[in-house]
Specification:
single chain, alpha/beta, Rossmann fold, 2 domains, 8 helices, 15% strand
Length: 268
């Protein structure tokens, strides 16, 4: 269906909730999947899970903000599998100091945390694209899929650092799509997925009470989401598979919402 069997992919942050779901979706389509992350234990666990499901996976322990470690990961990938067809930039995250608490104002922002969050989410997308995109430039074929956020498209209260970084990811996605097409032809495509609200380790306490019921913020979000619920990680798989495969051969420079209608709803 997606024409992906035998392709080779790297998923940065593939040891996380959303990146892991995308990695599993690719592996189920017979894609060879390299999981790249900083923590050896969680990277190996993600690889083992894919292998237990019958997929083929490779562990790459590297930091998306460290060019040397990414170059080492690229060398390991090329030695093992010889090429690269798909790069999913799913590494990212937030910090408490880069958000504004209910009783805080903008002037309580930690600029150190703001810088750390913008580095991780924006530079952590640019640098892997720089390192691994060179393989695609040499072969003049490939699909780069960045992970953006609804926070990039609308002003979401409290989330200042992450929102700014993901807005940068949107712009970089469009810029790189144009650059690759103009310099290397129509075989390299660059797009982004913009998830709506999904429950992960970092935001669970903001969205859910210990008993699983919604917090006040969780209720606000689901009220603004026409489907009246949070997304499930596996619901990112379909659009990722489409963007990775030949069915999206004329699609580049786009940011695709997967948000239950959040971006379409005015609130009225």
């Amino acid at each position: 269906m997606f024409d992906l069997e035998g392709k080779i992919a790297i998923i940065t942050g593939g040891n996380g909730v959303l990146g892991g779901a995308i990695a599993e979706g690719l592996a189920a389509q017979k894609v060879k999947v390299a999981i790249l992350g900083r923590t050896k234990k969680t990277v190996n666990a993600a690889v083992e899970k894919i292998e237990e499901q019958g997929g083929t996976a490779l562990a790459l322990v590297a930091d998306v903000l460290d060019k040397k470690s990414l170059e080492q990961a690229k060398s390991k990938l090329l030695k093992q599998w010889g090429s690269l067809d798909i790069l999913v930039n799913a590494a990212g995250g937030n910090r408490k100091g880069a958000t504004i608490g209910p009783e805080q104002t903008f002037f309580d922002l930690s600029m150190d945390d703001f810088s750390a969050v913008t580095d991780l989410n924006l530079q952590g997308t640019v640098l892997p694209s720089f390192v691994f995109g060179q393989i695609m430039a040499n072969t003049k074929t490939g699909s780069i899929i960045n992970i953006s956020s609804m926070a990039a498209q609308s002003a979401i209260t409290r989330v200042v650092g992450y929102s700014a970084a993901k807005a940068g990811v949107d712009n970089f996605t469009k810029w790189l799509a144009v650059e690759m097409a103009q310099k290397y032809g129509d075989g390299i495509r660059v797009n982004a997925i913009a998830p709506g609200f999904f429950v992960g380790d970092q935001n669970r306490d903001l969205l859910l009470e210990p008993d699983g019921s919604l917090t006040a913020r969780g209720k606000t979000i689901t009220t603004q989401t026409p489907m009246k619920r949070f997304g499930k990680p596996e619901e990112l798989q379909g659009v990722a598979l489409w963007l990775a495969g030949s069915g999206a051969s004329f699609v580049t420079g786009n940011v695709i919402p997967v948000d239950g209608g959040f971006s379409a709803f005015s609130g009225v």
